[in-house]
Amino acid sequence: MIPSHFFANLARMKLIYRWPLMRNIQSENIAEHSLQVAMVAHALSVISNRLFGGELDADRAAVMALFHDASEVLTGDLPTPVKYHNPEIAREYKKIELAAEQRLLDLLPVELKEDYRPLLDSGSADTKLASVVKDADTLCAYTKCLEELAAGNREFEPARKRLEEMLTQRMTPTIRYFIDTFVPSFSLPLDELSPH
Q1: How confident is the model at residue 196 (pLDDT cuts 50, 70, 90)?
Q2: CA distance linking residue 49 with residue 144, whole number of Å
Q3: In the chain, where are the structural domains located?
Q4: C-beta neighbour count of 3 within 10 angstroms
Q5: Does residue 28 sit in helix, strand or coil?
Q6: pLDDT at 178
Q7: Kindly report the CA angle at 77 between 74 and 81, in degrees rounded to 5?
Q8: Cα separation of 118 and 130, whole Å?
Q9: What CA dihedral angle connects 122, 124, 130 and 134, to 10 degrees?
Q10: Distance (Å, rounded) from C-alpha 69 to C-alpha 22?
Q11: Phi, psi of 29 (to 5 degrees)
């Protein structure tokens, strides 16, 4: 049996920090971020199913979210203002991401590749669940901004505005429910998070 470096590479998610060009009160790595995105993607799926007639696989959405930034162990986290500075950079970076996804897949034993392909290869993902993961990713970036702003870090104000606009463009009844129900708590201190 040939050894695989797949999980050793994924273990490095904890070494890749998000928001690299910004001053952070609390640093955040992609492993922590992926866990939070998984929890929110699961919640969005449950909310959609229970309240709005959705038929989403919440467990699958959570697993997809766990892997959504895995390729960054090879590429690092390119800051959004750089990644989307112009269409040409965005296109070229997408090619880099796709190559990194393929490289991670190539690290797997051949008998496991097809099980991981929908989790690592963005072109093979379930489009409905990929959209839920994108919504969760955007919500988690937004709540990160709220946490930083609540701690007095004004550096995150432009990102908050940009993400708020993105959420407005992506708005669904499910996202609105999540925002109204869960997001206000992200600006509160610990003592105010306890039950009454």
Answers
A1: low
A2: 26
A3: 6-184
A4: 7
A5: coil
A6: 98
A7: 140
A8: 10
A9: 10
A10: 19
A11: -100, 170
Mean pLDDT of the chain, nearest integer? 93
Q: Residues with Cβ < 8 Å from 164, sequence gap 6 or more?
A: 142
CB neighbour class for 192 (10 Å; exposed up to 12, middle 13-18, buried from 19): exposed
Which helix (H) or strand (E) covers residue 13, if one does?
A: none
Q: Which single residue is written with the structure tokens 């939070």? A: 36
Q: How far apart are CA 46 and CA 159, in angstroms?
A: 28
**Hey, what are 92's tokens?**
């070229």
Cα angle 151, 152, 158 (rounded to 5 degrees) comes to: 110
Q: Can you tell me the distance from the alpha carbon of 25 to that of 72, in angstroms, rounded to the nearest whole number?
A: 22
Taking the CA atoms of the chain, what radius of gyration do you get in angstroms?
A: 17
Helix axes 30-52, 127-150, angle to 10 degrees: 120
pTM over 0.85: yes
- Give the rounded distance of the alpha carbon of 51 from its chain centre: 23
What is the Cα–Cα distance from 30 to 49, expressed in whole angstroms? Answer: 28
Residue with tokens 């099980």: 115
The number of angstroms, rounded, from the C-alpha of 124 to the middle of its chain's C-alpha atoms is 17
pLDDT band at 82 (very low <50, low <70, confident <90, very high): low
Structural element, H or E, at residue 78:
none
Lookup: tokens for 21:
């060009």
Structural class in CATH, domain 6-184: mainly alpha
